[in-house]
Specification:
The protein is mostly beta strands. Among the domains are: about 10-80; about 315-395, no CATH class. Helices cover about 5% and strands about 25% of the residues. The protein has 3 helices and 24 strands. The protein has helices at about 15-20, 70-85, 245-255; strands at about 10, 30, 35-40, 45-50, 55, 70, 85-90, 95-100, 115-120, 120-125, 145-150, 150-155, 170, 180-185, 205, 210-215, 230-235, 240-245, 260, 265, 320-330, 335-340, 350-355, 375. A 4-stranded mixed sheet has the order 1-2-3-4, with no helix packed on it. A hairpin with a 5-residue loop joins strand 21 and strand 22 (about 335-340). The N and C termini lie far apart (about 220 Å).
Length: about 400
């Protein structure tokens, strides 16, 4: 009797219920009729899938989850996919390349400052440490540099003298110097001047260890107001020696009523000048427009032999012409005396007066008012000419004393 192998069979949709109902024996084969799949029971209600329909399909287009493919179909499909693929690569420089994945190898090479390595399936790209002869990755000391968002800057005060090759200045005593010395950048050194070395070159020793400038040794120059400067001692900078433009110096003289332009001082007549200290010399004409001129001096000298008074006495002859002075009586009361041409007298008689208690600053003296008194005249001789210029003048109102002989 021939051996027989029996398969339980049925549709895939009822296979699970068949296992649980019929009770399978381990190793028993089952055939699924609609999917052409082979199962082997592993227990009374469990099984393993061990076989399916084998397709000879080079494209694998059916994309089945329950069917197998032949070795030839798998190889044909894989060869078709790999042969048709390559890796296109572009870079910042050079021509684009295409790596055939079926036959070529992509090389990842390092350069200056860059190393590459492969471990398993990983490619590692490492930056080399920078050196004097090789570019690479470098770090910056936080004492000297500030790094932010990839930007490296030198910190304020970050470069100390220790980092500098030449961090000190040496002053060597020579002509005109007594001492020198070495000083670190940012430090100070005191240098003494030897005044004896400056004889004959415009600087002389005045005996106080100061240097005085001898102007006779300095050559003359044309002053350029706009561009030249002079040396000054700046009191607002601890008496430090500074330079100042001549134009600025002239501008500093400007004030109320006074303007300095190109070395020339101009007085604005519309502004009041309150005082002038020291000697004041006017080379030219001096015109004063105002109501009064006061001079508090011991001596007044006038070159003009004829002094003109009453410049504004025009038209009506309303002002007295003359001069007056002041004195105090025994009671220390101010009184005035003077010599005037009386404008109120039609003949313009000249009068000597004193004892006046009201100052005649308005240009008129009222005869007979304010304690007015005629003053005496003492002289060696009086010569009189008549009004018409001929004959003798009349002498009236006088007591004549012939004296003693």
């Amino acid at each position: 009797m021939a051996n027989k192998v029996k398969f339980k069979r049925g549709a895939n949709s009822g296979y699970a219920s068949m296992l649980s109902a019929a009770g399978s024996v381990e190793g028993e084969p089952h055939w699924i009729t609609d999917t052409y799949s082979m199962y082997v029971a592993t227990g009374t209600t469990t099984s393993k899938w061990v076989g399916a329909e084998i397709l000879d399909e080079d494209t694998l287009n059916s994309d089945s989850a329950t069917k197998l493919a032949t070795q030839q179909s798998i190889k044909a499909y894989v060869d078709a996919q790999v042969t048709a693929q390559d890796l296109d690569i572009s870079a910042d420089s050079g021509s684009n390349i295409a790596i055939d994945l079926d036959s070529e190898v992509l090389a990842v090479s390092g350069g200056e400052g860059i190393d590459t390595s492969i471990t398993g399936n990983a490619i590692t790209i490492t930056g080399e440490e920078a050196s004097a002869s090789n570019k690479g990755v470098a770090s910056f000391s936080s004492d000297n540099f500030l790094v932010s968002s990839g930007v490296v800057t030198v910190k304020d005060g970050g470069v100390a003298n220790d980092e500098l090759v030449n961090s000190a200045i040496t002053v060597t005593a020579g002509d005109g110097l007594k001492t020198g010395g070495s000083v670190s950048l940012g430090g100070t050194v005191t240098v003494d001047v030897d005044v004896s070395d400056f004889a004959g070159v415009g600087l002389v020793d005045d005996g106080s260890e100061n240097l005085d400038l001898s102007l006779n040794e300095v050559s003359a120059a044309t002053v350029d107001v706009a561009n030249d400067s002079i040396a000054i001692i700046d009191a607002n900078a601890s008496n430090a020696t500074k330079k100042e433009a001549i134009a600025d110096l002239i501008g500093a003289i400007d004030g109320t009523g006074l303007t300095a332009t190109a070395g020339v001082l101009s007085v604005d007549a519309a502004q009041a000048i309150t005082s002038v200290t020291g000697n004041f010399t006017v080379d030219g004409n001096l015109i004063v427009s105002g109501t009064s001129v006061t001079t508090n001096v011991a001596t007044v000298e006038v070159e003009d032999p004829m002094i003109k008074l009453a410049h504004g006495n025009t038209g009506s002859d309303a002002l007295d012409i003359g001069f007056y002075g002041t004195y105090e009586d025994v009671a220390n009361t101010p009184e005035y005396t003077g010599f005037i041409r009386d404008a109120s007298d039609g003949d313009g008689v000249f009068i000597l007066f004193d004892s006046l208690t009201t100052e005649p600053s308005t240009g008129t003296v009222t005869v007979g008012s304010n304690n007015f008194a005629y003053a005496a005249l003492k002289c060696a001789d009086i010569t009189g000419i008549d009004d018409d210029g001929t004959g003798n003048a009349e002498l009236s109102g006088f007591n004549v004393d012939g004296g003693t002989w």
